Each structure stands twice: as C-alpha cells, then as structure tokens.
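Exercise 3.2. Students should predict the tertiary structure of the chain below and write it as structure tokens, then compare their answer with the key that follows.

Predict this chain's 3D structure.
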Amino acid sequence: MDIKLFDSELKVMDVLWREGDSTAKYISDVLKEEVGWNMNTTYTLIKRCIKKGAIERSEPNFMCHALIPKEEVQEAETNELINKIYDGSADKLFAALLGRKKLSPEQIAQLKQIVGELE
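Answer key:
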C-alpha cells in the first residue's frame, strides 16, 4: 500500500469501514459525537483522503466510499511498526506483545491456532 494515512485520517476511514458508504455529513456527525470535531475539520480530512486516493466521492450528497480495505491499512501499519520499532523482526514484536499482560486460556488457544496455521 502506497497511501500513508495519518491518525486523524484513519478516524474518517474507520467510520466508512464500520458503517459502509456514508455521506460526508454523516461522517461529520459521527466524529463530532466520538471525537468532538467540528464539520470543517472532518470535511478537510475527507478531502485529504480523497486527494490521497483513499476515498471516492460521488453525488448526490457528497457520498463517500472507501477505496482501500481496512485489512490493507492494518497490514501496512503493522509492517511499518515492525520495521521501525522491532528491526524488521516480527518475532520480537510478538514476544513484546505476549510479555505485556496475562493472557486468558482462550487467547492462548487462539494464538496457538494462528501459529499452527502458519506452520
């Protein structure tokens, strides 16, 4: 993924990923409620996302459609984190995550299943 989105832009994308295609007004209403942003702030961020190719705008009603899936952004952000903080080593990230807190037996079973699928 070549599109780099800032945290504020990701909040706009998150509304689209959760709710599906939405009007700019609706996105603005949601973010006013969730983050306290005014309409101008949200519209500016939507326009930035359009310019970057992350959102497609259509009429009527300034309808917004996400052009990139959440999974693609999650993967790009995870890769960036691994490269920036963990010297490109996914196992260092994994060890750091596991060392952070006590995992429930269900979480441990789920992680074992994920690792099993990778083998």
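Discussion points: The mean pLDDT is 92. The chain has six helices and three strands.
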